[in-house]
Design brief:
single chain; alpha+beta; Rossmann fold; Alpha-Beta Plaits; Ribosomal Protein S5, domain 2; 8-stranded antiparallel beta sheet; 7-stranded mixed beta sheet; 36 strands; 19% strand; GTP binding
């Protein structure tokens, strides 16, 4: 059919008549409508089809390249797009905390009022005695004991101090960790303490402490955050012994961390005895041995406290018989160490029989000794009264002897035997001590609360149903303290009785203490027998009247009454002449203020009195021809306080043996001082100061940091803060390099971290920039000088010739330890050098000086001019200047301005001008320094690096990981030994200090927290490579190989100090011929 074009327009649209009739259209429309309804209904019930758009074409402008903020952060998050900075570049994104972490303390002065509270609304801790009674009892030195509480880290010293302090306070909840609401600024927090600083503005204190861990003597914020003691803390309390006789206990709690071991020295100086706390499971480790050696060096008797006996039951789960052998091995180890280090001293060994060994669990609040257990056992028998204090001492000693060692108890015969009644019979210590302890702990953990009161009643322990339903930790503390201490004694009675019996009172301990600490002539303070005549001494030999006071005290009977009244006439008056040893400075009241702490040795120190202060190192008559009163100053004691941990008691005066805070004198000395009466130096000047604190060789500060203020204009604040920091940290050293860089030196990371926190928050109050940690090196020589080096003074009138050679490690270590002194008689020094170090008598007699420190310098200067044909008498006028130049040179060596160690310098020849003006100190000192440097450079110089001795306590499964971590840090494992009675291993190793930063964290990560380590400075080790070898190429940003370590360390140290990278011998030699010979020698050595 042909297409009719007339039916369409020019665009192809149909314009013709309708294609069908109306009826058919209607029918078709109705049919289509029904069909559409059916399709719509079907579509509503049909599953939804998702269109696949993966192959669809999307235009570039419609693509989504990044997820929306709603997809990333979720709904309800607002995204702000800023095109400009809203803050300046000097404003930090996270603002630093403006306030400092406040320490937790009570009110400043104790006032015995019931309604006395702090501004925060917390009650002042009330004592069970009055301060007047404490002061009255302290008048009798025989009722005073001064002790240092020492022990390794986590041995429980501070918790043991809590046991003592709890018995002295009315509110024991302060020390049992009972929670109370404490207002901290605008917050209220659950805390284990019932008082805080009155002016606390910002609540930045750590979380609550667990039950029984209040740590009352840890008052610093960082101490509570770290749960370790960082500074030594004194406290004076009054506690009764087993006989009910009150004693004044001066207690110094010391840190156990090896990095803070410098805090132990002040405690040992003011103490008359040591209470060594050791973990019953870990045993005697290296840190405990070092503390025993320190006590022996101070001639201090020892009381051993074996703490954490609960760990034997709850953690180690040793059978009672094995636990006995574990404890016996520990006591024998302590006695063996005492015998090893106390040669020449009369320090007795410790034994449970006489009560010098105390068993304790400070966490659960109990102490126990065999004499007290024997007295309580005898008091329960029909033959003795019910009061244990009234049991005859002879009977107590006899029974205590049968409770330790190879002694057995036969229930059938009710007698003790030396042989076991049966093959499986336990020793008497197991029967009477360990088995009851195991039963108490087992019953507390396994018995249902409803049946526990009846079970404990069978053991003689009263327990209420409410107490039986308490928390398991609280329940164990209640059961153990009631069962193992027992009425009528307090939890601390066993320890107090041991201290009162085995530690001397202040006057009895004066003899050995003054012989070691007082720099003047010895005073004959020796305990005498009853039939000996009274000791006598001239005024010069006894300038403080101590001999007469000791004699009068020995002739006076102690008061019969337990209560010492204020007007008791049986106590002799204290010596008229004052002598006070100030050993430490403490932060006081914020704003960087300091207060002095010391011990009254003789006389009476009164608040408001004027005294004369002798600085550290004072010598009567002055030093080096200075004024006679050099090192002295007149000061006024503004106030006196007795320390009690977090608060203090103001007192008007203090007598012999008292420990006091002294106000008004802190700004007059650096670290230690001596106080005497104003007229003590007139007319008799033979009054000396106390010696500096005996800081051990292993306490050397070898880790250093460079500091500078964030705002340069705040430099004076930082310098003042560094001065106060050095005053409060015994081992911290500060130094300014020639480049102006300011350094602080410490023993480890913890010490420097604590010092920086004090500097920022307490003393300076500014932001400080800190460098990466580095270490101190030493310079030495390994061969004698290949040439005799000489140098001429700038005026050309004097010539000095010097040679250098190694000194030897044993002699170097003894010099650094101060075991040799030029103050000895010449014959004595010659004998020691001949017998111990194989020196000839002529060389020993030629020793001029030690350096750089006159007392502990590890280098020697010898006068060998006689061998060179020079008259020694002609050299004598310049000896002081030559010695000064030698000490200047050894203080900073030629390689990288580090101290010189282990070098013997011999002065071979000295040509001096006749006129004094031509051989003045200005000519001799710098010339001696130059020739000393030249002699070292010609003697094969080497660098020495410090080495840590590492002791790692680890389970056997982690030993391989320990070896891996040690080897990665250039360390080496020296050995491994099993810890008796435990499945743990003790690994001994050595690690260079420069590679030790972060070692503890790395070790815990690799061992999953199962290994614990302690790092102590041990020795200096020579780096074998040559630091002057210019042929060694160092790649940037790469670790140096072992053959290049010495040069790498030297170049980096010189660069840090602003020195040129090359060490030139031409700076120190004037003669051209000698310079050419020296250069040829060095070149030949490098080529070879």
């Amino acid at each position: 059919m042909a297409l009719n074009l007339e039916l369409y327009d020019e665009f192809g649209n149909y314009v013709g008549p309708p294609l069908s009739s109306s009826s058919s259209s209607a029918s078709s429309s109705s049919s289509d409508t029904d069909s559409d309804d059916e399709d719509t209904a079907a579509a509503l019930h049909a599953p939804v089809r998702v269109r696949d758009t993966s192959s669809s074409i999307v235009l570039a402008e419609d693509k989504v390249y990044y997820a929306s903020s709603a997809e990333v952060f979720g709904q309800g998050v607002e995204t702000i797009v800023a095109t400009a900075d809203r803050r300046s570049l000097n404003e930090p994104l996270v603002a630093p905390h403006a306030g400092k972490q406040s320490d937790v303390n009570f009110v400043n002065d104790y006032v015995a009022k019931v309604d006395e509270t702090t501004s925060a609304g917390d009650p002042v801790p009330r004592l069970v005695y009055s301060p007047e009674y404490l002061a009255a009892t302290a008048r009798d030195p025989r009722r005073v004991r001064c002790l240092a509480l020492v022990g390794p880290l986590h041995s429980g010293k501070t918790l043991l101090a809590d046991v003592l302090l709890a018995d002295a306070h009315a509110d024991r909840s302060l020390f049992a960790g009972a929670k109370s609401k404490v207002s901290l600024g605008n917050m209220t927090r659950e805390s284990a303490f019932t008082a805080t600083v009155a002016d606390l503005a910002t609540p930045h204190l750590p979380d609550i402490l667990p039950l029984g861990k209040s740590r009352f003597l840890d008052s610093r914020a960082d101490e509570m955050a770290r749960r370790i003691s960082i500074k030594s803390s004194p406290a004076t309390v009054l506690l009764p012994d087993a006989a009910g006789r009150s004693h004044v206990l001066n207690i110094m709690d010391t840190p156990g961390h090896v990095a803070m071991r410098g805090e132990v020295a002040p405690a040992l100086r003011v103490a008359d005895g040591v209470v060594l706390v050791v973990d019953a499971v870990e045993g005697l480790l290296a840190r405990g041995k070092a503390l025993i050696a320190a006590a022996a060096a101070g001639a201090l008797p020892l009381v051993l406290v074996i703490n954490k006996l609960d760990r034997l039951v709850l953690e180690a789960r040793l059978p009672p018989k094995d636990a006995y052998h574990k404890l016996r091995h520990l006591i024998e180890a302590v006695n063996d160490e005492l015998a090893l280090v106390s040669s020449g001293t009369s320090i007795p060994s410790v034994s449970p029989v006489d009560g010098s060994v105390v068993f304790a669990s400070a966490l659960h609040g109990w102490t126990l000794s065999l004499p007290l257990l024997a007295a309580r056992t005898l008091a329960a028998s029909p033959a003795h009264p019910d009061n244990p204090a009234a049991v005859p001492p002879a009977a107590v000693a006899a029974l205590a002897k049968r409770l330790w060692g190879d002694a057995y108890y036969s229930p059938a015969s009710a007698k003790f035997t030396k042989r076991p009644p049966s093959k499986s019979a336990p020793r008497s210590f197991v029967t009477f001590v360990l088995e009851p302890m195991y039963k108490i702990y087992t019953a507390g953990l396994t018995t249902p609360p409803a049946a526990l009161p009846d079970v404990m009643a069978a053991h003689g322990v009263a327990l209420t149903p409410a107490e039986a339903a308490s928390h398991p930790a609280t329940l164990l503390r209640l059961l153990a303290s009631r069962a193992l201490c027992g009425a009528p004694w307090e939890p601390s009675t066993a320890l107090v009785a041991a201290v009162a019996r085995h530690l001397p009172h202040p006057v009895a301990a004066l003899g050995p203490k003054l012989a070691l600490a007082y720099m003047g002539p010895p005073i004959a303070l020796i305990p005498r027998a009853e039939d000996d005549p009274a000791p006598s001494a001239a005024g010069a030999a006894d300038p403080f009247g101590l001999v007469a006071y000791e004699s009068e005290l020995a002739d006076t009977a102690p008061p019969s009454s337990q209560i010492l009244s204020l007007d008791d006439a049986t106590v002799p008056a204290s010596p008229a002449h004052l002598l006070v040893n100030v050993v430490k400075l403490y932060p006081w009241g914020g704003a960087g203020a300091l207060v002095a702490f010391g011990r009254v040795v003789a006389g009476t120190l009164t608040a408001g009195a004027s005294v004369t202060l002798l600085e550290e190192g004072y010598v009567p008559g002055g030093r080096f021809g200075a004024a006679p009163d050099e090192g002295t100053s007149a000061v006024t004691v503004s106030k006196l306080w007795i320390p009690v941990g977090r608060y203090r008691i103001a007192v008007p005066s203090a007598g012999p043996g008292a420990w006091v805070y002294i106000g008004g004198i802190a700004s007059s000395f650096a670290r230690t001082a001596t106080l005497v009466a104003p007229d003590a130096l007139r007319p008799t000047p033979d009054v000396y100061a106390f010696a500096p604190l005996p800081l051990d060789v292993d306490n050397e500060a070898v880790v250093k940091l460079a500091l500078e203020p964030l705002v340069p204009s705040e430099l004076p604040k930082m310098l003042d803060g560094l001065h106060k920091l050095r005053q409060t940290y015994p081992l911290l050293e500060t130094r300014v390099e020639e480049s102006g860089e300011r350094l602080i030196f410490g023993t480890g990371e913890l010490m420097l971290d604590s010092a920086l926190a004090d500097l920022r928050n307490e003393f300076a109050g500014i932001e400080i920039k800190v460098s990466d940690p580095a270490v101190k090196f030493c310079e030495t020589v390994v061969e004698p000088s290949s040439l005799q080096t000489y140098a001429t003074t700038p005026n050309g009138a004097n010539t000095l010739t010097v040679m250098a050679e190694p000194l030897g490690r044993p002699l170097t270590n003894d010099l650094a330890a101060g075991e040799l002194s030029l103050a000895w008689e010449p014959d004595d020094l010659i004998d020691v050098m001949e017998s111990k170090y194989n020196w000839d008598a002529l060389a020993a007699a030629s020793i001029w000086a030690f350096g750089p420190d006159p007392a502990r310098g590890p280098n020697m200067l010898l006068d060998d001019t006689l061998a060179g044909g020079c008259d020694p008498a002609s050299v004598a006028p310049a000896r002081a200047a030559i010695t000064q130049g030698f000490r200047w040179a050894t203080k900073a060596g030629p390689l990288c301005d580090e101290p010189v160690r282990g070098v013997r310098f011999s002065l071979l020849d000295a040509t001096l001008a006749d006129a004094y003006a031509d051989r003045s100190s200005g000519q001799i000192i710098p010339t001696m320094r130059r020739v000393t440097y030249a002699s070292m450079l010609m003697a094969t110089p080497r660098l020495m690096e410090p080495i840590y001795a590492v002791e790692i306590y680890t389970p056997p499964d982690a030993v391989s990981a320990v070896f891996t971590v040690v080897s990665r840090r250039r360390g080496r494992v020296l050995g491994e030994l099993p810890n008796p009675g435990t499945p743990h291993i003790i690994v001994s190793a050595e690690i260079p200090v420069i590679d030790s930063f972060g070692f503890e964290t790395d070790l815990r990560v690799h061992t999953q927290g199962m290994a614990f380590c302690s790092l102590t400075f041990d020795h200096w080790d020579v780096l074998r490579s040559d630091p002057l070898d210019a042929s060694i190429e160092l790649a940037p940003l790469e670790p140096a190989p072992p053959v290049a370590l010495a040069r790498d360390f030297m170049l980096k140290t010189r660069r840090r100090k602003g020195l040129t990278p090359h060490v030139s011998i031409a700076k120190y030699i004037d003669d051209e011929t000698l310079l050419q010979a020296a250069t040829a020698q060095l070149y030949a050595a490098y080529e070879g």
